[in-house]
Amino acid sequence: MPGMKAQFLAGGGVADVNFLKLAGPAAEGAMAWENGPSLQSLPGGNGFANHYKARFGGSMA
Description:
The protein is of the alpha+beta class. It has a domain of 34 residues. Helices cover 31% and strands 10% of the residues. The chain is built from two helices and two strands, in the order βαβα. Strands 1-2 form a two-stranded parallel ribbon. Strand 1, helix 1 and strand 2 form a beta-alpha-beta unit.
């Protein structure tokens, strides 16, 4: 993904406070996500996507 500088990526169960407790300082810079509604269905979603593309030169998907 353009602009991303994460050293560790994960989804689902990692987006949890227990991950932060167990990983401690090693969690610095980690990125996790949860599924949600499509960006286009959110107010301002298309504007955000356009700004992201202009800033980083590519889409988020």
